[in-house]
Amino acid sequence: MRAIRHEPNWKPQVNLLVFHLCKAHGWRRVNGWVPLVVELSEQAAKETLRPVHFRLALKKHVSALIVEVEAHAELPERERLIHELSSACTFLSGRELRWATFAKQGRSLSRSALAPIVSLGQLMALGPEVKVFCGHKASPPSRRFCAMCWRYVLGAGKHCREHRVPAGGSAGQSSQARDGYWFCRKLSPQFNDHIRVLSSHARREMLRSRWREAIEIARVTPWLKRYRPHAWGVVVGRVGRPDEGSVLPAIVRALDDHGPEFGEMLEQREALHRDLVDDRAAVFDLLLRAEAWFGAAAERRAGWGGGRAGAGRPARASTFPVSDDRNRVS
Q1: What residues contact 210, with CB distance under 8 A and at least 6 apart?
Q2: CA distance 111 to 176
Q3: Of 236, 214, 231, 238, nearest to 291 (Cα)?
Q4: What one-character DSSP code corresponds to residue 13?
Q5: pLDDT tens, position by position, 109-158
Q6: Cα separation of 69 and 82, whole Å?
Q7: Quick check: pTM over 0.85?
């Protein structure tokens, strides 16, 4: 059947993306998947190709090819091809929406002995390349701190997931999220004051150069204990005490913590974390803001209730007469 034959000799005018995938990435072209590539390129030309669009397009064309194969009883290895296509369709019917998982499944399919399955597996692993080819840069999202804390924000808005403006009384907003927002809103003046103080101290003591030196000589932990004690305490409390070889990933993982993220957002977060580990200046800034926030929060909480100076009821003089040894009965 022509639709599923591997044809190494072909002309590039069929589709520029097909040509790019074959020449740049070694895609094993099978005619049955060319309409799929064309649809993906058209989708990516309109907007960034997302995993959900990628999955739906793959499922549509895999299902169509299964029907076509079933209609050709004389096709060699027909039953095996139907079985492997059906397995791919089962995967595509799931809810997995991560490029990394598509790539893993694609590598598995690429080990098949059947050309259409190999071609499908290679294409499944090349989803992000379609985005790049169509002009959507594959770089990680720009780094921007939450206006209320030290976490990085992905996507639009000024606040991280923890400190988004709560919609009062609406579903999906827990009381904890609202408390976090209002607490941070009241904390903002102290937080900004602490940032200014720590930034000034960092310039005066040349802490950035000391930070780079601490990384080079594997003495990050003593540096953190001395200059970022609040942030270091949070890291140890959340992920334990890391060794020098894994301290930077532990800092990023512990401090840039967000609620459950799924699909493309989780992939972006993981990509951001990988880049942060290699960016000493970015980790320094993350630590500075975290130290400022936790220091300001501790200062504010110390003033709650009976903790603040002058709090509580004033001492009252005793209403009982002071005992006098001269009036004591022996």
Answers
A1: 223, 227
A2: 49
A3: 231
A4: G
A5: 989 989 999 999 998 888 877 766 765 544 445 578 988 899 888 766 78
A6: 7
A7: no
